[in-house]
Amino acid sequence: MSKKDKQFVEEITPMEVDFAQWYTDVIKKTDLVDYSPVKGFMVIKHYGYAIWENIQKYMDNRFKETGHKNCYFPLLIPESLLKKEAEHVEGFAPEVAWVTHGGDEELAERLCVRPTSETIICEMYSRWLKSYRDLPFLYNQWCSVVRWEKSTRPFLRTSEFLWQEGHTLHETYEDAQEETLQMLNIYKETAEELLAMPVVVGQKSEKEKFAGAYATYTMEALMHDGKALQAGTSHNLGQHFTTAFDITYSDRNGDLKHPYHTSWGVSTRLIGGIIMVHGDNRGLVLPPGVAPVQVVIVPIASHKEGVLDKANELFSQLKGKFRVELDDRDNYSPGWKFNEWEMKGVPIRIEIGPKDIEKNQAMLFRRDELEKEAVSLDNLEEAVDNLLRDINNNLLYKAKKMRDEKTYIVKSFDEMKEVMDIKPGFVKAMWCGERECEEHIKAETGVTIRCIPFEQEDLGHTCAFCGKEAKHMVYLAKAY
Amino acid sequence: MSKKDKQFVEEITPMEVDFAQWYTDVIKKTDLVDYSPVKGFMVIKHYGYAIWENIQKYMDNRFKETGHKNCYFPLLIPESLLKKEAEHVEGFAPEVAWVTHGGDEELAERLCVRPTSETIICEMYSRWLKSYRDLPFLYNQWCSVVRWEKSTRPFLRTSEFLWQEGHTLHETYEDAQEETLQMLNIYKETAEELLAMPVVVGQKSEKEKFAGAYATYTMEALMHDGKALQAGTSHNLGQHFTTAFDITYSDRNGDLKHPYHTSWGVSTRLIGGIIMVHGDNRGLVLPPGVAPVQVVIVPIASHKEGVLDKANELFSQLKGKFRVELDDRDNYSPGWKFNEWEMKGVPIRIEIGPKDIEKNQAMLFRRDELEKEAVSLDNLEEAVDNLLRDINNNLLYKAKKMRDEKTYIVKSFDEMKEVMDIKPGFVKAMWCGERECEEHIKAETGVTIRCIPFEQEDLGHTCAFCGKEAKHMVYLAKAY
């Protein structure tokens, strides 16, 4: 490594030394994000935003395939609407931003910047819905929301974030439940297929469910540091909001009924998940499905005749098929470029130099395994295509392995405390189902019940924490 | 038309009777939009939002082809930042919404909901820009903005709207000017090619330019009622903001310089333009490029054997190639469906009934000309493809014709007043270039100078309004 290279590769704090600092170093040095002048608000830079665009594109297709359409509802919600559903206002009022003035005039009623849109959407649904023939309502919106947070970290918890929120109405409880689980499943498939991020899916406890929900379902991922990330939630809202907002329709017998209601959302938080599940001490490792640049071509000895021409030829060949970039900057050495693109997590680097050209080959470097191999230029496209697939599978495999290694079965409170002290992760344990017991666990250890997984295992008959009769097997963890 | 049909087809006020009411009827009855509980804020329903998605998709591609990348900047801007550029704050402060409380706490500094993002973006650019090697900065964002409006109308003027805002930095004035005009040209091509909406392009007068701009360029379209719509603007901001925000870089000689700056935006206002340029007394007429449904298939006598099967077959055949819907609802008559889809502006309706099947044909109805012709099922795809193209060309042709018929050359103030009284439209006239003269025209007539068009014509040597020496030929109109 030349002096110049060393100068460039600013140190990323190793994750074993200080995980939080590692995260901050990575997001700042890879130009994903920046802090803004307003505390707790982030600027998503183009490299980070491009990841979000790739997530959006995939998910929006999945939503549309399942019959959902996008709408746009207003940013500002009157205080009186927010207050209509009692649990909801209690949950959200403490963390909303209030608009009190429009231009020079004080408003007669305060407006909150949407923290989520159930209330304004229900208000509109109450005007739109007439007959059972109109059902189901299957709408989604992509937007930003604001929740005033005291302690923030880019992508993971910020006072503003980007997300999608789906809001649907159905004739029956069963239809709403089916929708809730269908969307959770789409989230799970997005996480695992697109982001190579394995998730545990299940139901939230009463304490942890969404303010105003009948039942909340979640997907939970495990990060490198053993903390869990709630990566997406889907709520069966029952008739709580549809009653509070007096949404009615005439059913097949002509009777007035309240419909059943769901909402579901994922956010830019997913990007935080990608970073903390796949990243390493060199920086980002991006899954090919969302990497803004899937392949970077770096010419070697580019001043030598024919090298730049060949690099350009390969670029033209791959363009349109992959998200590819040619790094032909003449003020940086190949070594400097290698370091930069590795830090930025580009899945594949193609190196092409005079010797490669002689042999009709290129070197393919894979970021996930830091390995290089020569590939014939005759099969370059196929080789890249296969390697991207392989990288995706490998990332999912490695993430599952990491998670499994950090998942423990515990039989007692003490055992959990010990495990969490030594090497934190997911804990599987039997639980009584009581709120007091859950609150006690959290107060004592900071550990929370992440979910009651759909895949139950029988780990015994008594609650590991209070000794009462066990009701469920649950996943616990410290969480972001 | 059966009784049921008549019942359904609620009257749309004819545009000749009351254009404003016609507009309101059309947007409400076609489910484009709804009013929200907050005055001046609109809900964009799925049919309206799908138009916006089609516009976004086209434009986003054009932006990316020309090297622009998307980012996301915070929704809330500190008051102190808004105040940094003097003209800018004067222009926007009276119409911003102020956030004064986060949760239960009063904020130390008020935050405005972005009315546009020059200030927050310049603040970030000042941190990011170091060297001439970093230039140009070519970033865009898709978001919503809030401007507190006293008098609003959906899509045309609302207190919140969706838009894109591009913000770029360049080494030289010439580069910035080239960018400004390049983006205006992309806007013009979007308007004419995608929306079939002819526009006049040119420069805004000093009075009408963007608050803080060095020069503002605009595209202006003429609506059915003879009023102009400013449909998109591109600003050369010179060094106004880059000086105020102290954005500097070291140039090729190592000297510190302020870069040159542009911004450019179009909004959901374009949808208002589409409605008022192409619509008629039956409702919407949507250009094929943005129509959420390009082709609707309506089976005739669908209870007869084979009809629904055939309709489904056609649907499968066209799906994936066009945005197509099969209207197989059994509780509406074909006549009712015809009316509904015509009102919703769907470019092509395919009717298929027993007699058509016998003859191996379908009837193709085109919304723009309200004409029907039989087409062999052997060439259906090709016929639909050709007809969509033809409809697009025809809409542009008709809109140009309408505009030309409503464009007048005037030589005096009196002549303009007379013309504007009888049948309003675009007025072309010579103008002295003086602000007082411009203000006098507006105060007397409500007519404004829409732009100094790039295509100048020599209509004389004296200002039509004050008699002084003429400087430019300008377009004038009453405007939305």
Automatic annotation (TrEMBL), chains A, B:
It is found in: Cytoplasm. One of its GO terms (molecular function) is proline-tRNA ligase activity. Coiled coil: none annotated. Its EC number is 6.1.1.15. NCBIfam families: proS_fam_I. InterPro entries: aa-tRNA-synt_IIb (IPR002314), aa-tRNA-synth_II (IPR006195), Anticodon-bd (IPR004154), Pro-tRNA-ligase_IIa_arc-type (IPR004499), Pro-tRNA_ligase_II_C (IPR016061), ProRS_core_arch_euk (IPR033721). Homodimer. Residues 48-287 form the Aminoacyl-transfer RNA synthetases class-II family profile domain. Belongs to the class-II aminoacyl-tRNA synthetase family. ProS type 3 subfamily. Consists of three domains: the N-terminal catalytic domain, the anticodon-binding domain and the C-terminal extension. Pfam families: HGTP_anticodon (PF03129), ProRS-C_1 (PF09180), tRNA-synt_2b (PF00587). Keywords: Aminoacyl-tRNA synthetase, ATP-binding, Cytoplasm, Ligase, Nucleotide-binding, Protein biosynthesis. Transmembrane segments: none annotated. The gene is proS. Its main location: cytoplasm. Catalyzes the attachment of proline to tRNA(Pro) in a two-step reaction: proline is first activated by ATP to form Pro-AMP and then transferred to the acceptor end of tRNA(Pro). This is Proline--tRNA ligase. It comes from Alkaliphilus flagellatus. It catalyses: tRNA(Pro) + L-proline + ATP = L-prolyl-tRNA(Pro) + AMP + diphosphate.
